[in-house]
Amino acid sequence: FLMLSFIFSVLLWGSEAYSLTLLAAGQGQLLTLRHGFWVLCLLNLAIAVPISAGNLGTFEVAIVVVLRGFGFPLAESVVIALVHHLWQVVAIALWGGIAWVLWMGQKRSMS
Fold first, then answer.
1. ∠ CA(92), CA(96), CA(98), 5° rounding?
2. Crossing angle, helix 2-26 and helix 33-46, to 10 degrees?
3. Could you tell me how many helices (H) and strands (E) the chain has, helices first?
């Protein structure tokens, strides 16, 4: 199971790093996959201690600081950070909503 979890983790981190490269390309910026992994590593260090609900603010600032360190303009860095965080929040809300609907349906069928 350890190897399977490692493979799954690499795939998830890779897809998230790739989504950052796509967001950067949409803003006319070049972000390599390697730099995408750096953004994720430093982002996760920044949000390791939660100081706000949903890491709001900390999440965006971490991404902006890293991207600015790579030479990205401020406006594009902010857009990338906001859209990346929005994607995550929407995905969690959708999966949570689906789970809730399924749970409620199961709860009703048991009554």
1. 120
2. 110
3. 4, 0
Within a 13 Å sphere around the CA of 74, how many CA atoms are in the beta-carbon half?
A: 0
pTM of the model: 0.86
The pLDDT tens digits for 49-96 are 888 888 999 999 999 999 999 999 999 999 999 999 999 999 999 999
> Residue 38 corresponds to which tokens in the numbers above?
């750096």
Over the range 35-50, which residues count as b (16 or more CB within 10 Å of their CB) and which as e?
Answer: bbbbbbeebeebbeee
- CB of 43 within 8 A of CB of 63? yes
CA–CA gap between residue 51 and residue 6 (Å, rounded): 29
Q: How far apart are CA 28 and CA 23, in angstroms?
A: 9
Hey, CA dihedral for 39, 40, 46, 51, is it positive or negative?
positive
Q: In the 8-state DSSP scheme, what is residue 32?
A: -
Tell which residue, 42, 46, 5, has the closest CA to residue 20: 42
